Amino acid sequence: MARCSVCGKPAVYVNRAAGLALCQRHFLEYFDRKVRRTIRKYKLFRPREHIVVAVSGGKDSMALLHYLHNLAKRVPGWRVTALLVDEGIRGYREYTVKRLVDYAEEHGIEYHIARFKDYVGYTLDEIVRRGRELGLPYLPCTYCGVLRRYIMNRAAREIGATVIATGHNLDDIVQTFLMNILGNDWAKIVRLGPISGPASHPRFVRKVKPFYEVLEKETTLYAVIHGLYTGFEECPYAQMSIRWTVRRMINELEERSPGVKYSLLRSLETAINMLRRQGIGEPDEEEGLYSCALCGEPAAHPICRACQLRLQLGIMEV
Ligand code: SF4
Ligand code: ZN
Question: Do residues 35 and 51 both lie within one domain?
Answer without folding.
Answer: no
